[in-house]
Amino acid sequence: MDGHPGILVAMDEVKVVVAHSERATLRVGEVFLKVDADQARIDVEVEAMALAPVPTPEVLWRKPPVLAIAAVPGTALGRLGEPSTASPAAWATAGAAIRKLHDAPLPSWPGRAGRGLDELAADLDGECGRLVTNGVLPADLVTRNRQVADAALRPWTPVFTHGDLQITHVFVDGDEITGIIDWSEAGQGDALYDLATLTLGHEEHLGDVVVGYGADVDLDVIRAWWSLRSLLAVRWLVEHGFDPFAPGCEVDVLRSRM
């Protein structure tokens, strides 16, 4: 405190990007600090970014349980619950980047998008029961979306998936992809899981993504993943301080299937 308060103003702020009982991400200037008690997730993130043939953040250093990565330029493709300001061309470019990832050599490990069908069906049925029993969602809403979700439970050919490809994890500058972040759920998985995660709550851009992806995809399976992902997420989000009932978010996604 030497009488120069401007020095304090010039210092980088510490911003909490996301924080819950499993992990936290902080931003300090142009550096993101990811704190994760599960070292395996950090290991996956670093290895996946090294293998992925798409723009990823630079790893600056790691000292468990912290991983430091550089911020990527540009802005997020959008946010769940808000209209995306990105152009249709940017969404198509995102689709092309996903296709490039899916065509890359497989990593050696299964990812979040690669869970076994029997395990996934059991988790889904159990979660649907809890949503109704605990009064979180109406029974008719859960029953209808459980029916829709069934289309996702089919055989698939494994590809290199991101596993958590939310639109806030894809950064663009104009119509160009500048970086894809948060790779801790990456690994072998179902290609349509990634496409569904990216377009969750932004169905109006699904066509743009598919055009960029450049391959025939089963839109019913993507819609099934929307229902499945939302059903599994609602209670977790509520318990961790997030609001899946906000306009345009997971509960509205479920309602759109009625």
Query: How helical, in percent, are the residues?
Result: 40-55%
Largest sheet properties = 5 strands, antiparallel
Using the CA coordinates, give the radius of gyration: 19 Å
- Order of helix and strand elements from N to C terminus: HEEEHEEEHHHEEEEHHHH
Strand content: 15-25%
Tally of domains: 1
By CATH's scheme, which homologous superfamily applies?
A: Aminoglycoside phosphotransferase (APH), C-terminal lobe
What topology, given as strand order, has the largest sheet?
Answer: 1-2-3-5-4
* Residue-averaged pLDDT: 92
Shape: globular
What distance separates the N and C termini? 61 Å
The CATH topology assignment is Aminoglycoside 3'-phosphotransferase, Chain: A, domain 2
Organism: Streptomyces antimycoticus
GO molecular function, one term: transferase activity
InterPro entries: AGP_Transferase (IPR051678), Aminoglycoside_PTrfase (IPR002575), Kinase-like_dom_sf (IPR011009)
Keywords: Transferase
What is the strand and helix layout of this fold?
Layout: H1 5-10, E1 14-19, E2 23-28, E3 31-36, H2 39-51, E4 59-63, E5 66-70, E6 75-76, H3 88-102, H4 117-133, H5 139-149, E7 159-161, E8 170-173, E9 176-180, E10 187-189, H6 191-199, H7 206-213, H8 219-239, H9 250-255
Antiparallel strand pairs: 1-2, 2-3, 3-5, 4-5, 6-8, 7-10, 8-9
Helix pairs in contact: 3-7, 4-5, 4-8, 5-8, 6-8
Pfam family, one: APH
Protein name: Aminoglycoside phosphotransferase
Organism: Streptomyces antimycoticus
